[in-house]
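[agent] plan:
  1. take the single chain provided in the ticket
  2. run structure prediction with default settings
  3. attach structure tokens to the ticket
  4. add a short note for the reviewer (M.T.)
[agent] executing step 1
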Amino acid sequence: MTRAIPSPTTDGADAPAAGVRPSGLRRLSFGLLMVYVSILAINSGGLGILIPDLVSRIDEANKVGNLAIVSTVAFLANVFAQPIAGALSDATRSRFGRRTPWMVGGGLVAAGFMVGLPMAGSVVTVAIVWLAVQLGVNALQAAATALVPDRFPPARRGGVSGMVGLGITIGNAVGAIVAGSLAAQGALPYLVLAVLMVVVVGSFVLVNRDSSSLTDAPREPFSPTAFLAGFWVSPRRHPDFAWAFASRFLMVIGFYGAQTYGLYILRDYVGLSDTESTAVAAQVGIVLLVGVLLSALASGWLSDKVGRRKPFIVWSSVVMAIALAVPLFVPTVTGVLVYSFLLGLGFGTYISIDLALMTEVLPARPAGGQSTAGRDLAVLGLATTLPQALSPSIAAGLVSATGGYPAVFVSGIVFVIIGAVAVLPIRSVR
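[agent] step 2 finished; step 3 output follows
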């Protein structure tokens, strides 16, 4: 069994933080927080409110199925874009560094197509434009995530994981607030989210400059066969990697099932009007953020302090399961707000630990070998992007089969509990 990466020479980084001052790491942590805010703002505002609203206006009668189609088309980007971009960024040698070109390029593609999204006049066009947005977002995310093992020593990864987790939740809230409050203003919310991404990514790469010394660093000869083979990580040789993938997949699919249909739940399950539902959706984003703020940073810091990850994952699943049960018994605005707050507490703990755990189960590379952190983390990233893409179809099937939304909450409870159980067999992380 391959152990978690024992030292900076084998953790997939070239020189992780060896000569970086604490102030530099704090600045980089905050920068990654903001990058994830911009990513999740587009994803949550787009898929949570703007795209459902677009799809509903195009064809109200078939909105649930059509939203599933749009989300599933994005699955193609999630499957291919992030791992390929991660692997290519590993091999990139440029005067701007290894990750910067992919962050800038991905951010510009995502922002540009986001501005064009409100002009889509059919479900097919919405799906194609959203696919392009996701291609850009995944390229940006693959490069940004790889900076954690590149630049942070293992003992500091709980803290940066907490910052990234906080950025994810703030981004979710920002996306919901911007989209919910400006949904009636035509193209304005799309433009706001696009500008946010361009400004954040541009500022990040200027303030946190990538190392240009990698221009002359060794690079393995390119082989199409070896390139494709590199995306397969054997569960038999790397069981901890496989269990971490399974745990994240289950936890994320449990979280996003109900979140994807949040707007329709407010309208069709709670009984709000279209105008009321978009306003409450913004409130839900704020309440979710408060829950995460109370748990994310503290959990990441405490995890580094005690040197343990798994107990926090188990605790987070218990809180999330309780949260998902609330709307089953209290199908009101109050019930949804309580559910959102508890879900924020649980998910905040989870995402503040998850990235740190993931960097500690990466397959070790030979000393002096080319870093594969971007590729390996992007493969693990599929455990986030795949369930995000699949959860709308699963939820739509459950709604159609049962005639309502309670089954979505029940399935979420089951997924997060099994997800916590899946982390227990990991032997290289406590």
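[agent] step 4 note for reviewer: Residues 1-19 have pLDDT under 50 and may be disordered.
[agent] ticket updated
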